[in-house]
Amino acid sequence: MTQDLAPTRLADQLERAFQGGAWHGPALMELLAGVDGAMAQWRPGPAGHSIAEIVGHLRYWMEDARRQILGGPGSPGEPGADWGASEPDTEAAWQALGAALEEAHCGLRTAVQQLEEGALDEARPGSDTTIRGLLLGTLQHNAYHAGQIALLRKQAEAARGSRP
Fold first, then answer.
1. Which residue segment(s) compose the domain that 156 sits in?
2. Residue 123: beta bridge partners?
3. Which CATH number do you get for residue 50?
4. Which of 20, 29, 106, 112 is a plausible cystine mate for 11, CB 3.0–4.6 Å?
5. Is residue 89 in a domain?
């Protein structure tokens, strides 16, 4: 097993992609810094997701990954459950959603740090994917949606700038 994929390294990669220091560009929290409730709710069109919806979606999957690492079942697989109602209608609700995202990230990172190295290659309950595969997928998922947030933020800022 290589040191690059040990639990401590995976936890570090989760932290870098979330807080900062990721090689791919701004981390998730760097992208969310300065986003207010109005910007979080902005949509590029009727079928597009808002930043707030993406934040809720990320929170859902981080909590799911943590639950699986701790030996619990994965998400129930109900269609759309991961895109639940995450449209904060007040600034306080948006701040609470951001805090819930941070809490989900911290819980996941802590669960990863506590893993024994051998546990990474264990299959998840009800799946043939390993814990390592789950974590690598989570890193990819977070980076993908961070890119979406970066684009949405630019579009929302441009739309704000074009208002009289």
1. 3-70+82-161
2. 130
3. 1.20.120
4. 112
5. yes
Asked whether the beta carbons of 8 and 113 are under 8 A apart, the reply is yes
**pLDDT tens for each residue of 110-150:** 999 999 988 999 887 777 789 999 999 999 999 999 999 99
Total domains in the chain come to 1
Burial of 100 (0-12, 13-18, 19+ CB in 10 A): middle
| Residue 54 located in a structural domain | yes
Residue 143: the pLDDT is 95
Q: Which residue, 38, 37, 50, is CA-closest to 148?
A: 50
- Count CB atoms within 10 A of the CB of residue 102: 17
The DSSP line for 57-113 is HHHHHHHHHHHHHTT-------TTGGG-----SSHHHHHHHHHHHHHHHHHHHHHHH
Domain annotation covers residue 75: no
77 inside domain = no
pLDDT score of 162 more than 80:
no
pLDDT of residue 74: 67
